[in-house]
Specification:
Elements lengths: L2 H29 L12 H25 L5 E3 L4 E3 L19 H12 L3 H14 L7 E3 H25 L9 H13 L13 E3 L14 E3 H4 L3 H11 L3 H15 L11 E3 L5 E3 L1 E2 L6 H14 L2 H18 E2 L2 E2 L2 E2 L2 E5 L3 E3 L5 H8 L2 H18 L5 E3 L4 E3 L7 H13 L3 H16 L1 E2 L2 E2 L2 E3 L4 E2 L6 H13 L13 E3 L5 E3 L20 H6 L9 H5 L29 H9 L18 H25 L4 E6 L7 E6 L13 E8 L13 H4 L3 E5 L5 H10 L4 E5 L27 E4 L1 H13 L5 E6 H28 L1
Parallel strand pairs: 24-25, 25-26, 26-27
Antiparallel strand pairs: 1-2, 3-4, 5-6, 6-7, 8-11, 9-10, 11-12, 13-14, 14-15, 16-17, 18-19, 20-21, 22-23, 22-28, 24-28
Helix pairs in contact: 2-15, 2-16, 3-4, 3-5, 3-16, 5-6, 5-8, 6-8, 8-9, 10-11, 12-13, 12-14, 13-14, 14-15, 14-16
Bound molecules: 1-deoxymannojirimycin (DMJ).
The site of 1-deoxymannojirimycin has 10 residues, from helix 16.
Length: 792
């Protein structure tokens, strides 16, 4: 053994020790308490039955895929056939996952080993070696190809060699899967030729970046660029070719440099050439999730302390700005006190699992509990849900993240609550997602309608984690504690650190602060999950639905000159005193009382503006009242991330027209001609916000208002949010969102008027300023006009 590799070996052992000790500390913290045990224990018999049910689920899905879809990438469980790129009607960017390389089988290989099905594993490996090839003129996602294909091949290679050694089987295997993963790695490498070293989001498997379609490629997401290192390091260490690991480390270094130096937070979309941020929202879910995961797991797998130090810096920032009780809400990386979204996405459900691994158990228990309640409320965790736990986006593609966290929480605590949670998740899948040909994604958790889609992660992660949750570690063929689970739940052995890579030495940098890591262990020595969960038990039911019975005057609408408003304020218990002695804090005269009111009004305006700023530029749709064309009313609207911002006194004006069909998801509109130059209204639903915007732009509309499809929703009772896009910036017209109640008002005026209704789309803050200035002008004119009378 060379000096380097023996050092690495020692390091690897030390790492594993740290990791296990951390886990033990957590478990010890948990078990040393004398708090009451959780109520419902699960018998060994029931647990074993559930493990077998998870196994049956696997075979139901796997056989459906193998018999009806293989060698396709995915099974379409409703039509019971395979989904092929370029053959099956395209779903747009989503299809970048598919490379016609039998993805579901490759992604599933290591689950077969965990299930102990060596015969089928051997058969499947032979199929992959025989059938799978990569020389295709197809553009694929670098991130997805890496985590599902490279990771799947590597893990299967490692397990094939493991079985040769420990199960005396597969002696014919000569590392073919490793060769395949090396070839695929090379095909991904052209994506890394950028000035920053941050890889492009997509690459052509045959042509690299020479595909003309990729000429304009420049944007990627943080998770897309930052979820490469585990697989690429394993690839380098197993093949001996350092190029992969070199490129992946460089990408991680470049990303780290892009963090906001004040907040230590990262955005979600960036330009790979300039390193500029395109979207500065910062959370732990979509667009960034596995970047954090790979920082921590790179430390665990490779033992490089700098990744732990980086993880800790980001982690502290997330816990400071993004975490709010059990919730995790996006903020702006450069303005971390401003929340940028009022909803959470289901991808963040992986976070408690990562917190468990890093030793921060208490917030993990809390967030998991919140998610469990969301799941119980809506049957499945919807793709996105609002801060008051209403559905923001009702889809559920049978994602694994919540079950993954449930598994890690159970492993760390031994609390049977997590077995019960897993049971609930399993039974729900059986009841609502199982179809005769596999498991179908849920299109909308409100209706339970299915989608013709079974993503490869259903087999590689969702069912795998269920099986692991109900299995005793000693019953498994491999000791899972000796492996790191990649983000796609592929197994990479900690022993990879022993295969030292001479290219890298473990540097001690100023980023390194192991103490930070030690501090993340729950400081409360008497922590017990049940104790943490208990106060949260009615977290959701206690806080929603949040409706107000009657319409109350909101501060946003208050006008000191309006007698009704003064009365309403009085009824709320606020008394305006306008006469009396100044020394006692009361106004001296009627005029001073008036000034006091005006002062209060200004304070209110200031507060309004502050909260408006925090709401990331609240928008307004304004129109003149029926009575007086000089009198304007503004209805509250939300901005979008993908359309140009209307700043300062900019506005777009036009007559309002409803799209036909109203959802505006087709290729064109029936009233396309009429919509030219108008402010188009389209209803939310059936397709993304940004595709409605593209259609509106295509037909020449001046702006687009997307109105909500949830009856009764209102900006008065729920926070406004900014509509998300897909990272591209091709929408050049303003696009705003209106809740149903606000749109109802607009629609009522439209129906009342004989003429088309002309509106202005602008910033709310600007509208308020405009109104204030107008009121002040009117007041001045009025007082000038009144003076002679008074003097008389
Ligand atoms: C998986 O492909 C991986 O877990 C990835 O990190 C996130 N998305 C899916 C599952 O939801």
């Amino acid at each position: 053994m060379s000096a380097t590799s023996s050092e690495s070996f020692v390091h690897g052992q030390r790492l594993m020790l740290i990791f296990l000790v951390a886990l033990c500390i957590v478990v010890a913290c948990v078990l040393s308490t004398e708090t009451t045990m959780p109520t419902q224990n699960m018998s060994n018999k029931e647990r074993a039955e559930l493990r077998e049910e998870a196994r049956d689920m696997f075979y139901h899905a796997y056989n459906a895929y193998m018999q009806n879809a293989y060698p396709a990438d995915e099974l379409m469980p409703l039509s019971c056939k395979g989904r092929y790129r370029g053959v099956t009607p395209s779903r747009g960017d989503m299809d970048d996952i598919l490379g016609n390389f039998s993805m579901t089988l490759v992604d599933t290989l290591d689950t077969l080993v965990l299930l102990g099905d060596f015969t089928e594993f051997e058969h499947a490996v032979k199929l992959v070696i025989r059938d799978v090839q990569f020389d295709s003129d197809i553009i694929v996602s670098v991130f997805e190809t890496n985590i599902r294909m490279v990771g799947g091949l590597l893990s299967a290679h490692i397990l094939a060699e493991y079985l040769q050694k420990h199960a005396d089987t597969m002696h014919w295997y000569k590392g073919e899967l490793l060769e395949m993963s090396r070839e695929l790695g090379y095909r991904l490498l052209p994506a890394f030729n950028t000035s920053t070293g941050i890889p492009h989001a997509r690459v052509n498997l045959r042509l690299g970046m020479k595909d003309p379609m990729l000429k304009k490629s420049r944007e990627t997401c943080t998770a897309c660029a930052g979820t490469i290192l585990l697989e690429f390091a394993a690839l380098s260490r197993l093949t001996g070719d350092p190029i992969f690991e070199v490129r992946a480390h460089a990408a991680m270094d470049a990303l780290w440099k892009l963090r906001h130096r004040g907040s230590d937070l990262m955005g979600t979309v960036l330009n790979v050439h300039s390193g500029d941020w395109v979207r500065r929202d910062s959370g732990v879910g979509a667009g960034i999730d596995s970047y954090y995961e790979y920082l921590f797991k790179s430390y665990v797998l490779l033992g490089d302390d700098k990744y732990l130090a980086r993880f800790n810096r980001h982690y502290n920032a997330v816990m400071k700005y993004v975490s709010e009780g059990p919730m995790l809400l996006d903020v702006l990386m450069h303005r971390p006190h401003a929340k940028s979204k009022n909803f959470m996405d289901s991808l963040l459900a992986f976070w408690p699992g990562l917190q468990v691994l890093s030793g921060d158990l208490k917030p993990a228990v809390q967030t998991h509990e919140m998610l469990y309640q969301v799941m119980q409320m809506h049957t499945f965790i919807p793709e996105a849900f609002t801060v008051d736990f209403q559905i923001h986006w009702g889809q559920h593609p049978l994602r694994p993240e919540f079950i993954e966290s449930t598994y890690f929480l159970y492993r760390a605590t031994g609390d049977h609550h997590y077995l019960q949670v897993g049971k609930k998740a399993l039974k729900t899948l059986q009841q609502y997602a199982k179809v005769s040909c596999g498991y179908a994604a849920v299109n909308d958790v409100r209706t339970g309608k299915h989608e013709d889609r079974m993503d490869s992660f259903v087999l590689s992660e969702t069912i795998k984690y269920l099986f692991l949750l109900f299995s005793d570690p000693q019953d498994l063929i491999i000791n899972v504690d000796e492996f790191v689970f990649t983000t796609e739940a592929h197994l990479l052995p900690l022993s990879i650190a022993q295969l030292g890579n001479a290219t890298f030495s473990f540097r001690q940098t100023d980023e390194h602060n192991v103490l930070d890591f030690m501090r993340t262990c729950p400081s409360s020595n008497r922590l017990f999950p049940e104790k943490v969960r208990k106060p949260l038990r009615n977290f959701i039911t206690g806080s929603c639905p949040r409706t107000t019975a009657g319409k109350r005057l909101s501060a946003l609408d208050f006008q000191a000159s309006n007698a009704d408003h003064l009365r309403a304020v009085y009824d709320m218990g606020i008394t305006m005193v306008s006469v009396g002695d100044r020394s006692q804090g009361k106004a001296k005269s009627h005029e001073e009382g008036e000034m006091g009111l005006q002062f209060m009004q200004e304070m209110l305006e200031l507060t309004k503006m502050q909260s408006i700023n925090q709401l990331a530029q609240l928008q307004a749709v304004a129109y003149a009242t029926d009575e007086n064309p000089q009198d304007w009313i503004a209805l509250m609207a939300g901005p979008s991330h993908f359309s140009p911002e209307l700043t300062g006194d900019q506005f777009v004006q036009g007559d309002v027209i409803l799209a036909k069909p109203l959802r505006a998801c087709d290729e064109s509109l029936e009233n396309a001609e009429e919509a030219k130059g108008k402010v188009l209204v389209a209803e939310r639903g059936d397709c993304t916000f940004v595709s409605k915007a593209r259609l509106a732009q295509k037909v020449g509309a001046a702006a687009l208002i997307v109105c909500d499809n949830v009856p009764g929703s209102s900006g008065e009772t729920q926070p406004m949010f900014a509509m998300s896009g897909d990272g591209k910036d091709d929408v050049l017209i303003p696009v705003v969102f209106m809740y149903s109640m606000e749109f109802g008002k607009l629609s009522a005026v439209m129906q009342r008027r004989k003429q088309p209704l002309r509106v202005r789309v602008m910033q709310m803050v600007e509208f308020k300023r405009w109104q204030l200035a107008k009121e002040q002008r009117q007041n001045q004119t009025a007082s000038v006009a009144q003076k002679p009378d008074k003097e008389l």
